[in-house]
């Protein structure tokens, strides 16, 4: 247990003083009776989406809470994880004053959001084995360090961070530790969600964009203590998750076996693709992946990338990221897509 953790000291003073915006849908709480709603200036003629959506997304949270074993009050939903991450920045980091720590090579949004919010981004490069350099990270911390971002499994390297390393950071840092678990459903490692109660400074983000196959609806999820979620709730736009998104998310979440089947197929394909790529002469190294993509070190990544584009296949060239010289990132596709990739690579 992190005894020195003081949430009120971390929250921006202006946010601490704010009361949440109270929308029409927030003020009147339904008691089950059939009511006539003349409170929100909506068009009264029904078409399925003429009413404002539930600002607290109660139905979606109820399903997530029961599936994940947390309280609804420990969940915040957003317009993709990107909105969730932005809310975390804005609730805790004072522009031009505070700083965060990120561990490149990693997901690009942390840096974009730090820039947007005028927050210093203190980078501590991963070690050669793509694991966090815990001592260097803790050395970078000062009294204005509000958040450490850990992406595990990490994008673009694909590996999960060692549990002992993450635990040491959680225990020795009094700010927030955000663990981005966008790829957790593809990993053999367990989610940090199981240990949420142990760490008052732990914030976990997940998304329906990857394993759940719903990148198009934009639904990001944040799990944290009730106190942290209450802070984020104060500043979130009232209707940040639209009605269509809530409906589609509910449908998908109610069919976990479908999602699971697709994930299993992607995992089988991942192993197959890794094996096939590793046989190719231009591939120098395949990095082990806990995600739905494979990072490979290759000969002349830039040229290979262009040749693949020419052949109609788009992969990601990650060569300009630290530790990722001459690397390509391959998303695992359908069996047919992966075959096509291999065929095109051979042909180039
Ligand atoms: C893809 C990805 C996300 C997903 O972001 P959404 O806004 O939820 O689509 C989050 N974090 C990482 C590391 C990712 O790679």
TrEMBL record:
- Does this UniProt record's set of keywords contain Transferase? yes
Keyword match S-adenosyl-L-methionine: no
Residues the record lists as N6-(pyridoxal phosphate)lysine modifications: 210
A single Gene Ontology molecular function, please? histidinol-phosphate transaminase activity
As cofactor, the record names: pyridoxal 5'-phosphate
| Domain Aminotransferase class I/classII large intervals | 47-345
Task: Give the EC number(s) listed in the UniProt record.
Answer: 2.6.1.9
Q: Which family does it belong to?
A: Belongs to the class-II pyridoxal-phosphate-dependent aminotransferase family. Histidinol-phosphate aminotransferase subfamily.
Protein name listed in UniProt: Histidinol-phosphate aminotransferase
Source gene? hisC
């Amino acid at each position: 247990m992190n005894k020195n953790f003081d949430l009120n000291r971390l929250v921006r003073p202006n946010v601490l003083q704010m009361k949440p915006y109270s929308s029409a849908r927030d003020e009147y709480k339904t008691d089950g009776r059939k009511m006539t709603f003349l409170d929100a200036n909506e068009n009264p003629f029904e078409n399925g989406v003429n009413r404002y959506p539930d600002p607290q997304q109660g139905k979606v949270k109820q399903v997530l809470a029961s599936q994940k074993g947390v309280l609804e009050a420990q969940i915040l939903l957003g317009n993709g994880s990107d909105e969730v991450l932005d809310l975390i920045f804005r609730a805790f980091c004072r522009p031009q004053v505070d700083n965060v720590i990120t561990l490149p090579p990693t997901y690009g949004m942390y840096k974009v959001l730090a820039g947007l919010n005028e927050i210093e981004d203190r980078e501590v490069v991963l070690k050669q084995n793509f694991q966090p350099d815990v001592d260097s990270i803790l050395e970078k911390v000062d009294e204005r360090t509000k958040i450490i971002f850990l992406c595990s499994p990490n994008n673009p390297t694909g590996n999960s961070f060692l549990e002992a390393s993450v635990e040491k950071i959680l225990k020795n840092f009094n700010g927030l530790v955000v663990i981005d678990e966008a790829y957790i459903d593809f990993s053999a490692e367990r989610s940090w969600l199981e240990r949420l109660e142990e760490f008052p400074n732990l914030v976990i983000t997940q998304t329906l964009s990857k394993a759940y196959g719903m990148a198009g609806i934009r639904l990001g999820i944040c799990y944290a203590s009730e106190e942290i979620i209450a802070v984020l709730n104060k500043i979130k736009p009232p209707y940040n998750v639209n009605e269509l998104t809530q409906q589609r998310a509910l449908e998908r979440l109610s069919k976990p076996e479908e999602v699971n089947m697709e994930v299993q197929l992607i995992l089988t394909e991942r192993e197959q693709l890794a094996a096939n790529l590793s046989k190719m002469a231009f591939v120098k190294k395949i990095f082990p992946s806990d995600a739905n993509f494979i990072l490979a070190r290759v000969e002349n990544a830039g040229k290979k990338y262009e040749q693949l584009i020419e052949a109609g296949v788009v992969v990601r060239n990650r060569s300009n990221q630290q530790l990722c010289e001459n690397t390509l990132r391959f998303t695992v596709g359908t069996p047919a897509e992966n075959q096509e990739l291999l065929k095109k690579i051979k042909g180039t």
